[in-house]
Amino acid sequence: MSSIEPGTTVGRYRVIRLLAQGGMAEVYRAEQALTGGILRPVALKVIRPEYSESEDFREMFLDEARTACTLSHPNIAHIYEVGDEDGLLYMAMELVPGVSLTEVERTLRQRGERFTDEALLAVGIATCAALEAVHERPNLVHRDVSPQNLMLSAGGTLKLIDFGIAKAATNRNLTRAGTTKGKAGYFSPEQAKGKSLDGRSDLFSLGVTLYQLAAGVGPLDAYPTLISRNTALVRGEWEPLSRVCPELPRGFISVVERAMRVKPEERYPDACTMREELESVAFAAGLPVGPGSLTGYVRAEGEDVSVAKSSPRRTRPGVTGIGAPQAVTASRAPAARGVPGGRKVWAPVAGVVVGLALSLVGGAFVFSRQSSAPVTPPAPVSPPVATPAPEPAPATAVAEAPAPTPAPASTPAAEPAPAPEPAAPAKGVSASAIRPEPTGPKRGSKRSREQAHVAAPASASAPAEEVLSGEGSLRIGATPGIQGQVKVPGYELDELPRVLGRVKAGRYTLQFTSSGRPSSCEVVVRPERRTLVVFDGKGCTVSYRD
């Protein structure tokens, strides 16, 4: 039952109706009267009296919440105000209609399906981008990254919510039933021990979140009590994701497992580094991760938001055979086995979910990267035609693209304007350096590919008689762990990864610099196709998507 009646005024906000209740707070839909008769809808979070009456809690909550209010970043929705009225602590924040990833994942699991690889990478990249902005502020740590605090809108926007209470609750040692138990599965080991935290604690929690979304079960779900979970947590006793979901892209598994290292110094040093690793995995897997990667999971009808009922779905076989786990140990929940893999699933979930996990304070994270400005084409080719690009090309080297109809990799002749294969390796390129990438299907990925590994430096070029016209796109990334810069003819030297949305079709010699060592490789940009280049520190793997 709500403690505040509709029509009540709290600060500058008039309460409309109760949206959600949690162990520490209630969230209401409210409105604020602005100049000119404008009514701004807000989500008003009101802390329960048993917590707000504590002076230590109040001071810590207000201090951290006010810091969160100063965050200004396209990936974080604004917190309008925090206040204290007659002993009532409240926070007014942007009203975010959406569904938590907890709800989406639960629905997928009930239908025997999972998030796609593309969606998993999009969640990781988006959340890292939000945490980058958070961690730029001195001593600001989110402390409660979890599926409950990641909201997904009908448009595919991902939002990180909940600032303020986590620190106050942790320092007050709130351990009553229903208060912290629900989030204990996402704590970092140092958080469980009550030690001081930095941004690497949030990265651990993100790793656990990605594990949960990928496997449909948390790494500590097999442990029935908070004490047993914490014991396993500080010892690192859980089933590796590589055993639970061996079909996931190897690079994604590596990122999650590094983020979940028990010792903070063995994790990623910051959210930016982890994001770049995930972007490199997306490039290497040929997955067009971008703003559209999470669309279709949630639907909105007026104010009602729920998991979508139906949509084209992609499924995968269950985890069986060689490489699949053969036994369930104490560190893994039984639900991790035998769940048929799937992709997108749609089932109704009642209600409107705002930017809130029921137990904590909300902010919001928006996964919406600005598209790159039009780029100047490489000289001496004539400028590109001023027509709309068929797809966005975000500056983060992660772009949206619909999944194309798969075509067998063994029939490149059916693709537009293929480059004839040279009869033999060119001078300076060993035969072993030119090798096709394995063509086995990857989880959640549908694509037709042409691939060749080109050693660096490479002096070979496509036959001169091939005529290339029109435009294509060029995306350049690197394998996990590789950092550097790339120079594309006609463009400035820039950091990896790099996306050029529309470039003239033709042959380009890419110049790479990594760890002080120069490398180069020849790339053919084909018209109306996506050319994906993955640099491994020595050479390039080139693939194409329709």
> Biggest sheet, strands in spatial order?
1-2-3-4-6-5
| CATH fold descriptor of the domain at 100-155 and 177-292 and 312-336 | Transferase(Phosphotransferase), domain 1
> What Rg do the Cα atoms give?
25 Å
Strand portion: 15-25%
Class by helix and strand content?
alpha+beta
**Which superfamily, in CATH terms, is the homologous superfamily of the domain at 100-155 and 177-292 and 312-336?**
Transferase(Phosphotransferase) domain 1
Distance between the termini: 54 Å
- Please outline the major beta sheet: 6 strands, antiparallel
Mean pLDDT: 73
Helix percentage range:
10-25%
CATH architecture of the domain at 100-155 and 177-292 and 312-336: Orthogonal Bundle
The count of strands amounts to: 20
Poorly predicted tracts of residues: 172-182, 311-463
